[in-house]
Specification:
The chain is an alpha/beta fold and 154 residues long. The chain is 58% helix and 10% strand. It has a single domain, classed as 3-Layer(aba) Sandwich (Rossmann fold). It has a four-stranded parallel sheet. The chain is globular, with a radius of gyration of 16 Å.
């Protein structure tokens, strides 16, 4: 990428940006982050990126029969983003973060729904490996940052 700033959009930010849906008007932090993002959209120094997995996660919600027009419209929209492949380095990091998270939860007897995070760990690992910011409104991304720091310290 020849740009100065790259940002990886999570599926919730794709939804906010492309559909304008699911925005909690009472979440002032989210509103500020979306305002900042909209200011960057037309900036030539900013590259908004997604992965094939994010494309899948975003587009799978559109129904087969009744939402086909929306599907085609949003499929065309996501094609306009810059794409990052999910490399072996990304899968290695995602695998190790998942394994460490499971180990820590099991050793502390903490029930955790790790399956709920299986896509997010890939998005997080993609951002880390590529040295870019992940834009997400998922609350557990901060927890992944701590997990990543513990993993790096091993």
């Amino acid at each position: 990428m020849d740009t100065e700033i790259a940002k990886l959009l999570d599926s919730n930010f794709l939804t906010y940006l492309l559909e304008g849906k699911n925005i909690d008007e009472n979440d002032s932090d989210l509103i500020q982050r979306l305002t900042d993002l909209l200011a960057l959209v037309n900036d030539d120094n900013v590259e908004l990126v997604i992965t094939p997995l994010l494309r899948y996660e975003f587009l799978r919600k559109f129904g087969w029969q009744h939402e086909n027009e929306d599907f085609n419209k949003f499929r065309a929209a996501v094609e306009e983003f810059t794409w990052l492949d999910i490399s072996k380095d990304v899968t290695d990091l995602a695998t190790n973060l998942y394994r460490l998270d499971k180990y820590e939860a099991d050793s502390k007897g903490i029930p955790k729904n790790l399956e709920k995070r299986k896509f997010d760990v890939f998005h997080f690992a993609t951002a880390k490996i590529n040295g870019i910011e992940l834009l997400s409104n998922d609350k557990h991304i901060d927890q992944m940052e701590g997990l990543y720091e513990r993993y790096q310290a091993l």
